[in-house]
């Protein structure tokens, strides 16, 4: 008889645990299929028909609309090259290789995925407007304070992420051609 009385409590506890686990699984990034290149992470399957059900649920819960597999890829950096979380109280130098794409953009977002407000009303840079050195390379300075050259304003909130979107990549993510892809490094220059 005592076991029957405990049954409703066990069912409620199991239901609550199941709901909590479901909510936890829907928060953050898709749990499977990530490809890491230095501090950058992408999920090449989220834009194609073979997306896994967990990634589909994460996207549905967040309302995010990924690029289609033929359109390109989004690369997200939450840390610098040393693994430290990106913090707008610090200055960063973003330089090195860029994805082999027809066009790419680089923007700073808050940790909730919204563009970061800033006094310059400048929200990103693109491969078409970037200043380059004589060898075709580039350097972007990400900072709260205005910088000469390619400056990406970070705004006032401390935590942020960087998103690089590569449109019409020359290599297909679906065929596994991400091997050998070079993306820019993110170096912390100093903090205030």
Structure write-up:
- The chain has helices at 2-25, 53-62; strands spanning 35-37, 40-42, 72-77, 90-96, 101-109, 124-126, 139-143, 150-153, 161-169, 184-191.
- It contains 2 helices and 10 strands.
- β1 and β2 form a beta hairpin.
- With 192 residues, it is an alpha+beta fold.
- It has a 6-stranded antiparallel β-sheet with strand order 1-2-3-9-5-6, with no helix packed on it.
- It has one domain (2-191): Sandwich (Jelly Rolls).
Keywords:
192 residues; Jelly Rolls; alpha+beta; 2 helices; 10 strands; elongated
CATH architecture: Sandwich
Structural class: alpha+beta
Oligomeric assembly: single chain
Helices, by number, come to 2
How many β-strand runs?
10
Task: Return residue spans where pLDDT drops below 50 for at least 5 consecutive residues.
Answer: 171-175
Mean model confidence by pLDDT: 80
Total of domains: 1
Taking the sheet with the most strands, its summary is: 6 strands, antiparallel
CATH C-level? Mainly Beta
How big is the Rg?
A: 20 Å
Arrangement of strands in the largest sheet: 1-2-3-9-5-6
Helix content: 10-25%
CATH homologous superfamily - what is it?
A: Domain of unknown function DUF1214, C-terminal domain
């Amino acid at each position: 008889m005592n076991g029957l009385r405990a049954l409703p409590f066990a069912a409620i506890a199991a239901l609550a645990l199941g709901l909590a686990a479901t909510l936890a699984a829907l928060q953050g990034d898709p749990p499977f299929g990530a490809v890491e290149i230095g501090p950058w992470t992408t999920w090449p399957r989220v834009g194609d028909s073979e997306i896994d059900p967990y990634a589909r649920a994460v996207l549905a819960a967040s309302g995010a609309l990924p690029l289609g597999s033929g359109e390109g890829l989004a690369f997200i950096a939450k840390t610098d090259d040393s693994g430290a979380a990106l913090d707008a109280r610090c200055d960063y130098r973003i330089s090195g290789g860029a994805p082999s794409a027809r066009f790419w953009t680089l923007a700073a977002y808050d940790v909730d995925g919204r563009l970061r407000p800033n006094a310059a009303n400048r929200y990103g840079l693109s491969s078409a407007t970037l200043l380059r050195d004589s060898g075709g390379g580039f350097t972007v300075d990400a900072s709260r304070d205005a910088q000469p050259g390619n400056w990406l304003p970070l705004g006032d909130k401390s935590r942020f992420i960087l998103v690089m979107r590569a449109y019409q990549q020359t290599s297909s993510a679906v065929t596994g051609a991400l091997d050998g892809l070079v993306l820019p490094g993110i170096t912390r220059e100093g903090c205030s």
